[in-house]
């Protein structure tokens, strides 16, 4: 790289000397070389510059690829450690390292995705990154469930499924960045009907220009391949009788139209005509019209089926019933609802397969494949998670694990509805906006203030940046949960404050994905302001507690605690400041996410120290034979009274698990008061 850069610099210097304007004013007797006197030198310098810059770009590309491969290898190595871990304490340490490595991998692959020019590769990369992002949280709860219930077979199966899927996604990323051929397990299915019809029509219409451009066997084979794929529709139990009959009729008509076209075509060739006569032109038009009608019928059948399925499963009744049966420990009911979920899964998988045929573009086709694979994998994982909960109905982490997988299912249904809308837009010719891949966050309406709520759409680069920050924030909230789980006294005021702040940070993470209750930027800024207030309250509590400590201990606690008020005040000021325009609104959103990350990082430094000093303080008091810590209890009572007066509700966190979506929503009380 250094050699290539030096070559480029030398070539640039040569060109600069040859094109120096000042040298043109010198007399010719000076015999200075210029662009006019040394054209050969100019050509050589230009070629050297082009060659060296090309080398720099190629080497830079190789370095990026090597960085991604190295990052992937680190993730795989840590995953192997996570699989073998046997204690919760060891798991927390390794998962923290794993989280940092996943964030690094997300940054590298996100930048690479933006640099890709091939839309097909970009869509595959987006799908793989979506799998990795969702599986990171599944891996957390599935592993913790396995640690809590090491002898449970269904928990082991559940965990192994997550690890297997992550490894496949990591391998797919490497295949894309190295331009390697897909493995047998990840091969792209045959050409879709939509693509097949488009290619067939192009071949038919090419007969206008040349009667000898292809053979009749080629056209017949192409049509038969298309009609063979239509059997996916006609053989499906979910295709209506009307659509099935119409598809079969149009398939028969397409064969007849092609036979007529071939007949006219062969006759025209015998006449040695230079261009297609009227009867052949008519045959070409009728053949293409028939194929368009077939394509429209197939689109109608698949789109109608998908819309009906999404509407039918919008209430998630089976998932809710599975959760209830699991909590009740009713294995028989779990088995019954598992069968219903399996039926749902088969319907959705087949619908995704049909949607792929009429998707219209390669990126949408790959997204259909991703949706199909997701339903295929998550369905059995939900069932294994429900079985684990039914076997251990009192296990909070088993319930948490089931919630995580159910959320993934619901999220994929939401993605599928967006996918259906995009397919319909392509079919209707609506291609005005840049495509947004489903692995990137899908923000809702954005506004600068409540009075004038105006939708602001982030472009792909902005979405990627917010998505990266969101993933980092999600991992920080997980670390916070793990830290809080170590506390014996879950009602401790500092712990409750930290849990509430973690819950708010999680809601901000959901916003970066276009999910949760925060729908507008104003919602986000209000949540950030409440988070800052909670942080200042926690800081005050810790400072009062520090007054009861010895000088060295007090200094150690205050050293970390004093970092909290400034960043909370910065977030508070930023949240209250008005903004106008898309760019400034995005910058404010990004700042809010970054400041929230900063607060969570400070909390992760404070809590372990506070925990250690509180234990020491209680031990000293106990040794002295003193009663319960009056000051601490008094502080807690004051805080409880303050919360009750303000109408604030503080939820505790399920032990040994990440907070469920319901708990995060419950903490967003400000939205309910709007």
TrEMBL record:
Alphabetized UniProt keyword annotations: Cytoplasm
Broad class of where this protein is predominantly found: cytoplasm
GO cellular component, one term: cytoplasm
GO terms, molecular function: actin filament binding
Cytoplasm in keyword set: yes
Keyword Cytoplasm carried by entry: yes
InterPro entries in the record: Alpha-catenin/vinculin-like_sf (IPR036723), CTNNAL1 (IPR030045), Vinculin/catenin (IPR006077)
Subcellular location: Cytoplasm
GO BP of this protein: cell adhesion; Rho protein signal transduction
Family: Belongs to the vinculin/alpha-catenin family.
The name this protein goes by in its record: Alpha-catulin
């Amino acid at each position: 790289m250094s050699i290539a850069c030096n070559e480029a610099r030398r070539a640039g210097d040569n060109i600069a000397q040859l094109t120096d304007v000042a040298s043109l004013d010198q007399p010719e007797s000076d015999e200075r070389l210029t662009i006019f006197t040394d054209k050969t030198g100019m050509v050589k310098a230009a070629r050297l510059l082009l060659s060296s810059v090309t080398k720099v770009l190629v080497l830079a590309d190789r370095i990026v690829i090597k960085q991604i491969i190295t990052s992937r290898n680190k993730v795989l190595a840590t995953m192997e450690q996570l699989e073998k871990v046997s204690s919760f304490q060891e798991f927390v340490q390794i998962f923290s390292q794993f989280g940092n490595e996943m964030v690094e991998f997300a940054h590298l692959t996100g930048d690479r995705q933006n640099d890709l020019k091939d839309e097909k590769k970009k869509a595959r990369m987006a799908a793989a990154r979506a799998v990795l992002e969702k599986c990171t949280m599944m891996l957390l709860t599935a592993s913790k469930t396995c640690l809590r219930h090491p002898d449970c077979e269904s928990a082991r199966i559940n965990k192994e499924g997550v690890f297997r899927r992550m490894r496949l996604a990591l391998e797919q990323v490497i295949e894309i960045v190295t331009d390697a051929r897909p493995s047998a397990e990840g091969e792209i299915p045959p050409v879709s009907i939509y693509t097949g019809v488009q290619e067939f029509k192009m071949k038919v219409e090419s007969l206008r220009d040349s009667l000898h451009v292809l053979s009749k066997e080629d056209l017949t084979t192409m049509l038969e391949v298309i009609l063979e794929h239509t059997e996916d529709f006609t053989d499906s139990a979910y295709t209506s009788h009307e659509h099935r009959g119409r598809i079969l009729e149009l398939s028969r008509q397409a064969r007849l139209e092609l036979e007529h076209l071939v007949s006219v075509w062969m006759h025209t060739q015998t006449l040695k005509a230079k261009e297609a006569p009227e009867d052949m032109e008519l045959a070409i038009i009728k053949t293409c019209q028939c194929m368009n009608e077939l394509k429209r019928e197939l689109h109608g059948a698949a789109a109608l089926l998908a819309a009906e399925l999404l509407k039918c499963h919008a209430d998630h009744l089976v998932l809710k019933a599975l959760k209830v049966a699991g909590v009740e420990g009713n294995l028989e009911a779990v088995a019954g609802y598992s069968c219903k979920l399996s039926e749902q899964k088969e319907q959705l998988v087949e619908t995704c397969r049909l949607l792929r045929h009429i998707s219209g573009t390669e990126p949408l086709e790959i997204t259909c494949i991703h949706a199909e694979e997701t339903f295929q994998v998550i369905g059995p994982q939900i069932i294994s998670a429900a079985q684990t909960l039914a076997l251990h109905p009192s296990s909070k982490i088993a319930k948490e694990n089931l919630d995580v997988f159910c959320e993934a299912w619901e999220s994929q249904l939401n993605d599928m509805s967006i996918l259906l809308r995009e397919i319909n837009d392509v079919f209707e010719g609506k291609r005005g906006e840049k495509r947004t891949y489903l692995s990137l966050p899908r923000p809702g309406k954005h506004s600068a203030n409540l009075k004038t709520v105006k939708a602001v759409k982030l472009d792909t680069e902005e979405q990627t940046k917010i998505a990266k920050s969101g993933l980092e924030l999600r991992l920080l909230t997980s670390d916070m949960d793990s830290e809080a789980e170590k506390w014996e006294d879950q009602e401790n005021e500092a712990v409750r404050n930290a849990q509430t702040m973690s819950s708010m940070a999680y809601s901000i993470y959901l916003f970066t994905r276009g999910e949760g209750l925060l729908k507008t930027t104003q919602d986000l800024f209000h949540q950030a302001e409440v988070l800052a207030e909670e942080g200042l309250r926690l800081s005050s509590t810790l400072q009062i507690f520090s007054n009861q400590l010895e000088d060295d201990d007090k200094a150690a606690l205050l050293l970390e605690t004093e970092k909290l008020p400034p960043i909370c005040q910065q977030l508070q000021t930023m949240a209250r400041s008005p903004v106008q325009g898309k760019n400034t609104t995005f910058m404010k959103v990004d700042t809010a996410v970054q400041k929230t990350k900063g607060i969570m990082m400070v909390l992760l430094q404070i809590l372990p120290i506070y925990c250690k000093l509180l234990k020491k303080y209680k031990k000293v008091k106990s040794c002295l034979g003193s009663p319960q810590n009056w000051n601490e209890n008094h502080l807690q009572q004051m805080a409880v009274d303050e919360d009750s007066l303000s109408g604030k509700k503080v939820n505790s966190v399920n032990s040994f698990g990440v907070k469920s979506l319901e708990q995060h929503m419950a903490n967003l009380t400000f939205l309910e008061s709007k």
